[in-house]
Write a structure and sequence with these properties.
The chain contains 22 helices and no strands. With 435 residues, it is mainly α. The relative contact order is 0.16. The protein is 80% helix and 0% strand.
Length: 435
Amino acid sequence: MNTPRRHARRAGIAALVGTTLEWYDFLIYGTAAALILNKLFFPAISPVAGTLATFATYAVGFLARPLGGIVLGNLGDRLGRKTMLVLTIVLMGLATALIGVLPTYDQIGVWAPVLLILLRLVQGFGAGGEYAGAVVLSVEHGDQRRRGLAGAWAPAGFALATLLATGIYQLFLLLPDEQFRQWGWRVPFLLGIVMLAIGYFIRSGVDETPAFENAKQAQQTKTGLFAALRHEPKSFLVVVGARFAENGFAYLFPVFAVAFLTKQLNLSQSLGLTAVIVASAVQVAGVPLFAWLSDRWGRRPVYAAGAIASALWTVPFFLLLETREPVAVVAGFVVGLGICYPAMLAPQAAWFAELFDTRTRLAGFAFAREIGSVLAGGFLPLIATALLAWSGHWWPVAVYLGLLTVLTLIALAVGPETQRRDIESAGTRSTVTTG
């Protein structure tokens, strides 16, 4: 009797571990980009140009994500969720560990940034299918009445990854500057291999989802991205639009804001990282709370509240940072990253999965989500840094995030409420009930 619940719990843990690795990869790079990589891989140019170049390599990882979404999403819709998720965790874990052993510009010249970019592309390719696959695995194993909570395992991985990535970097920043520059920055990347081993072991033991098996037995032939684009274009566009605010704020706080604190306000690196750690701990609790609320009130109302709250908090956030008071800085991060942001992240998981049919779910979800990642989060640190350099002030950054929020609210208004949608059918579109 408890077998479905046991499968659901195992699938949730597999989603949590894999998503933690995905976001750990990207956040550890983003943190390193804000603190040290510009000095090691782009030392021949000015500090501002070096920061821009480093954030550009950060954005390169996002450019590969839509391709990963296409290839890996189609693989997951044809061969199964489990097969695809084992492959993604291997790709991301190996690429992350290899960044940790890369020679620097002083050692091999221009080949250093070239190899860095190549590994970022591999990271991005694997991540392109990871989050969607993890969400679909946990949602399809979950109980229909609590799919929001089932989907919360994967976004909780984001909070946990932020906590791990920032906490680990905070620890190694205690090293003398020369030791951190020589080898300390490498260890957080090398730890990716540990997470790879754990994730591979867990995912190898997960069963395929009942929804996928039912669709496969029904011999439905229309699978993958092109079927999703042809039959569900509205769902595709809704996912892309809904990503703008969520993904933009995801990288404002732990990436751009940390660089802003250290480079613009001349505050210690440890203060920004401490603020992110505290906020991420709050977010770990916030994700299941907002996911539970989405099961009660619907996905869209909770998501919209999070988007509006995040946009409204942007100006107070920067004003708090400018006080240079540690308590105020931490409070700014806690409200923004710990409370406002998870109200978007938590309901998003189940909502995106519910928008698509079973045999197009993974490819449609993955590709649409990663297009949104490229357009929003991938370029956020680069665009925000350029806006800051142009204006000398943070207000254009706040305006830019406000525009992203408007696009997300439009997508939320257009998209359907899926809270009670039946996703157990063999790949056929079910009706949406209300009430």
